[in-house]
Protein 1
Amino acid sequence: MLEQPKPVLKPISEKDLASLMEEFRAIPLNKLDSYLNAAALNGKYVLLFDKTGKVQDFMNYKATLKDFYKEVVNVRLGLKEKVDSMEELRRGLVNAMRLGGNLAINLDKLQDVNFAGEWTMDSYFPLSVFNYEEWRQDDKYMSVVRPEENHGFQDEPCFSMHEKFNMVILCLYESD
């Protein structure tokens, strides 16, 4: 029997490692608002792993917080239809786009929420929402705005995404 060759792991240089680690950082809670603003200004969505359990409270006051983990669990238990859960997420998305804040999607401890497959629906929460530049095109973001939501602050049909809209995926960190 032939033995399969083991994959060769290439050593990573100190410079490459430092570059990778720049993307991951611990952010004190009192600096989180500044960090989120900077991410939005730089055209970046944010993935947060909360080690303290306090970021959810912060997002409750500073963002449109959607506890999507509850929706996922209810669908999996057969207590709710998937389309109804996607509608909850869509309404949060439209609200955050209108107001120009963060849409914080709280996944809590769930590790298997697949937005690339299971948890996207074209007219509710399309996969293109995760492409920062593409999602800012009128035809993309307007695909989730319902006719009754297509208004500005004067009730004219002129919904537009606020330039400060951003998205945060929030996960509760659990140590291995």
Note: The longest helix spans residues 82-99.
Protein 2
Amino acid sequence: MAVAVVKSRALAGMHAPEVVVEAHLANGLPAFTLVGLPETEVKEARDRVRAAIQNARYEFPARRITVNLAPADLPKESGRFDLPIALAILAASGQIPSDKLKHAEFAGELALTGELRPVRGALAMALATRAVGRQLVLPVTSASEAALATGLPVWIGISVERHGAKLTGFGREDQDFEDVAQALAPLKPDVISIMHTSPNDTDEAIDILRKHWKGPIGAYPESGYFKMPEWTFVDIIPPDELVAKSRAWKRKGVTAFGGCCGLGPEHISALSEAFKS
């Protein structure tokens, strides 16, 4: 699609008014225009977002890009809009599925490597997001503040991931997930879920998480993932192998299980029986 919309939040004192990030891609000479009353640090997002997308092994569109931060009369400051701007561009260019962005709000400053840095006002954003019934995606270092808003699912992001199904996952490096596990465990959440990972990555992540967390774990793997830049679907796992893994995960304390991208009906039906047994 040529237009994509991602929700975020500004910060105005103790309040966090909603900001709608709209990205439009048009034909013409390559350009990147940012409108919607952005302050200097928001305007600088153009360079951070471009580098982060490229270093995350996505393609930065060589098109005329217009990003609007609505409402136009609300001043926008800080680097909190880096992540929603990057996701909106990726969705508008068809590199990630836009339907996965509808029920969440995003905030996070991007490093040039694509990693996420903390933002101010996580609690205010969490309270505002909870009031409208959406989920909130934040950098891991902002999670402890956001967790003070009880009853809100807070999703943790490490970086802008390189394949579309993951969106804002934990990252593939062991050290990334080790850091996440150490940060989440002291917060005593109701459940920690591992989502948008291949089954082998899920298996490894559960082992790492178990060293720091003894509570409930949710596992939501894919049967495969898109490999860049060839855009081929690889790492397909047979249903019987995934069933065997799910039984092993259950023995490790996984209490919730579901399917993400790539799991077909045969996977789901087999897993339902396996997890009941």
Note: Residues 161-175, 224-235 have pLDDT under 50 and may be disordered.
Protein 3
Amino acid sequence: MNARRLLPIQHLAQQREDDQARQFAEQQKVLESIADEAAYEHPVDALNLVSSLPVSSTRDNLIAAATAMWAATAPEDAAGWAKQIPDEMLRGQTMANVVTIWAVSDPVAAGKLAVNSMNPGPWQDRAVISIVEQWGRIDMSGATAWVDQFPEGTVRQTATAMLAHEPRGH
């Protein structure tokens, strides 16, 4: 075959490949949209759906959001699921979301989870600061006592400064 005859065939093959990629991208967007909607009312179903998506920042954000929604009604279950996430960054983000939500209703349990189950690092630091903020709103003395147990460092300084500016809780 000469080169002239191959060009139309190559063009058709490329066009078919482009169409398949476009169709796949459209299917992914539909699944992401469904998962986003489901996260609010059926977070466990949303997590099952989203977990099947290819790795992407959108998928990771949906996982973190759905787990946070789940934490509002079943924080221990959401935390148990989040602990199993193999990707360390996604696990940290998701666990931070879970403990932040949990801190609204039970800052002691959220604090224990953050300290005992999260890897040290920025996600744990953010989670602890968020817990201190929530805890300080409802029980300033409990939050202060917890912060007083922190080792010296940036997290303790940030938490102490936050509590100093927080309106007094119950």
Note: The chain has one domain: 3-165.
